[in-house]
Amino acid sequence: MKNINLEIPEDILYHAKIKGNRRDELKKELAVHLYEEKILSLGNAIKLSGLGFMEFHYLLGKRKIPRHYDISDLEKDIENIENLS
Questions:
Q1: pLDDT at 69
Q2: If we measure between CA atoms, which residue out of 30, 37, 31 comes closest to residue 66?
Q3: d(CA 6, CA 79)
Q4: By three-state DSSP, how is residue 21 classified?
Q5: Using alpha carbons only, what angle is made at residue 40 by residues 24 and 3, rounded to the nearest 5 degrees?
Q6: How far apart are CA 1 and CA 66, in angstroms?
Q7: Which residues have C-beta within 8 Å of that of residue 45, sequence separation ≥ 6?
Q8: How big is the CA angle at 23 (ends 33 and 64), to the nearest 5 degrees?
Q9: Of the candidates 3, 15, 45, 58, which lies 20 to 30 Å from 69 by C-alpha distance?
Q10: In 18-34, which positions are buried (b, 16+ CB within 10 angstroms) versus exposed (e)?
Q11: Could you tell me where the DSSP H helices lie in 1-85?
Q12: How does residue 10 score in pLDDT terms, banded at 50, 70 and 90?
């Protein structure tokens, strides 16, 4: 898997009060925003955030961001479960 490095000017990080190990917060913020805007799927947002499944769900709940799951997703899940047996 290839990674892409994103260059962010130090003054931007300074004004955002992001320094040191808080830079991982930037990945979480990006993941949450891209999920909320329906740009990333839940799985990819979790991967980008660096959090675990439950941690990411907790973060979404804390921010009152609804999960993107509709009836067609439910139907696909049911079909996948039926195909397992």
A1: 83
A2: 37
A3: 39
A4: helix
A5: 50
A6: 30
A7: 31, 32, 34, 35, 56
A8: 30
A9: 3
A10: beeeeeeeeebeebbeb
A11: 10-15, 23-36, 42-49, 53-62, 71-84
A12: confident
Buried-state track 50-62, b at ≥16 Cβ within 10 A, e below 16: ebeeeebeebbee
- Read off the amino acid at residue 28: K
Tokens encoding 38: 């329906």
User: DSSP label at 67?
Assistant: P
What's the CA gap between 81 and 78, in Å, rounded? 5
Tokens representing residue 31 in the block: 């993941």
Give, in order, the Cα–Cα distances in Å from 79 to each of 14, 39, 43, 66, 74: 49, 25, 19, 24, 9
Once rounded to an integer, what is the mean pLDDT over residues 54-79?
Answer: 91
